Amino acid sequence: MKQLEKFIATDTEMQAFLNLPTTLFKNEKARKSILILQKKQPQETKPVEVLLANIPDFKNPQQFQGFISELNQWMDTNHTKK
Asked: Strand 12-19 vs strand 33-39: parallel, antiparallel, or unpaired?
């Protein structure tokens, strides 16, 4: 566990922290999130805005489409293709 903590702290950059919809879980205490990390690239210091988001219920197409649009905009802004 210590090695993993050290690796995360020194060799990765946080890209996103996404809360899954509460409707996927029996109760709030069981709710999970997704942490997205990227291994640091040598000689690359472009700052990235960390995406913090609550993923809406999949059964609500309008809210979910809005989330996907925000995600795509974040990707375009922070992760331009080389």
From this structure: antiparallel
**Cβ density class 44-68: b for 16+ within 10 Å, e for less:** eeeeeeebeeebbeeeeeeeeeebe
pLDDT at residue 21 in the model: 94
Indicate if the alpha-carbon torsion angle 48, 50, 56, 58 is positive or negative: positive
Contact criterion met (CB below 8 Å) for 78 and 48: yes
pTM: 0.79
